[in-house]
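pasting for ref
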Amino acid sequence: MRVFHVLLVTVCVSSLSFGQIPNAGFEVWTTDPDSNKNPVGWQTTNSFPMVNVEPAVPGCKGAYAMKVKTVDIGFPFPGVAILETAIPFTQAPRKFTACVKSKIMPGDQALIIVALMKGDSVIAATDSCTFKIDSTISQFTNLEFPLSLQSGLVPDSVI
């Protein structure tokens, strides 16, 4: 069975004045009507009994981290967590930071994809906002990723 795990903690999008992602430390979790536990402010691929996003301890800075894993259900089914809250930006962000700990199987990869939005339009180039976590990081490590916008527009949300 091919499974990889990635823990993400303390996620933020930064510029000279940065917008903080709500529940970035994954300290607050809620149970939905189907008994799936999800981080507040995030949508996940959890569908009981198949859970591939879950709270994990310890966290990078707080009590919890978000554990995202791919499970084999006859084919690889990757875990996905999507921020569902708009971020108020006052200027265009220049970087994305995350505290990451991973155990990725050889040949597999984990991606962090950031989409900066203005209304319904993506204003950041997808190729410059897809970040590969392709090695094993045994301890929580702060990673910084540069963001490139397609225009001078200031985003009104991030996915």
